[in-house]
Write a structure and sequence with these properties.
CATH class: Alpha Beta
Shape: globular
Number of helices: 11
Strand order of the largest sheet: 1-2-3-4-5-6-7-8
Order of helices and strands: HEHEHHEHEHEHHEHEEHH
Length: 270
């Protein structure tokens, strides 16, 4: 199941080009240099240093306690394992509550963590922060749908956008993020029909996690798809270790499945 990885460096501009030519974008989380190297060699297009590290690496109950310094540390060591893949880094809880603070913390992730794009959660409420980052030349990835940093307000990890009013709000937020200058948007745990509508309504890439096969790309928590995560694996993930003999083969199988549009299937979709 090995796959010959492309060699061209992936940038925010290349992500736009991939959407335009209909090529699926493959993304995974990584938290250290070794996993980053394996993913890069397998042809993963964008490696996300997610604040999910708070749960899968640090053993915490949520992403909320993760700090900017912790994100910068993990981003820095992940960057050492990458040659081709775009490095996206999450901005943690309350690190982007106003444009000035956002710029300060994004600069830390860029300078100390070697981030090439930063990701933040929310729609209209974060537009001023997104606009400020874009003004400063920092590529931004948005995040809509299920927002792990807002899990207490949402009442748990639940599918978002099932109701028409909520779906309309998420779609409008996506359009606003694009207008503000975001380079891409992650949509998490939303109905596949809504994700398809969003992907067709904006020109920037929509990368899904639990959002169906019609997104412009897919992202998973690497520990979930490698069957490392302690506890129940999310419905939208798949254990790629089942039919492979190594981590590198499992990641290559995931890359191929996303590119071939065989993942996610109906069983991983809401």
């Amino acid at each position: 199941m090995s796959r010959q990885a492309p060699t061209k460096k992936v940038t925010n501009v290349e992500l736009l080009a991939m959407k335009a030519r209909g090529e699926k974008i493959v993304s995974l989380t990584a938290y250290d240099a070794s996993f980053a190297h394996i993913q890069d060699e397998a042809g993963v297009d964008a490696v996300l240093v997610g604040d999910s590290l708070g749960m899968v690496v640090q053993g915490k109950n949520s992403t909320i306690p993760v700090t900017v310094d912790e994100m910068a540390y993990h981003a820095k060591i992940v960057s050492r394992g990458l040659k081709r893949a775009l490095l996206i880094v999450d901005m943690p809880f309350m690190s982007y509550s106003d444009p000035q603070l956002t710029a300060k913390n994004a600069a830390i992730l860029m300078q100390k963590g070697n981030a090439e794009m930063v990701k933040l959660e929310g729609g209209k409420e974060v537009l001023s922060s997104v606009e400020r980052l874009v003004e400063l030349g920092i590529p931004v990835c948005g995040h809509l749908g299920l927002l792990p940093q807002s899990v207490n307000q949402l009442g748990g990890y639940r599918v978002q956008g099932r109701e028409q009013k909520e779906a309309k709000r998420i779609l409008n937020d996506a359009k606003c993020l694009e207008k503000a200058g975001a380079s891409a948007i992650v949509v998490e745990c939303i109905p596949a029909s809504l994700a398809k509508n969003i992907s067709g309504s904006v020109n920037i890439p929509i990368i899904g996690i639990g959002a169906g096969v019609d997104c412009d790309g897919q992202v998973l928590v690497s520990y979930d798809m490698l069957d490392i995560t302690v506890g129940k694996r999310p419905k939208f993930s798949k254990n790629f270790m089942t039919e492979t003999k190594s981590i590198s083969q499992a990641i290559s199988a995931y890359v191929k499945a996303v590119k071939d549009k065989t993942f996610p299937s109906d069983e991983h979709t809401f």
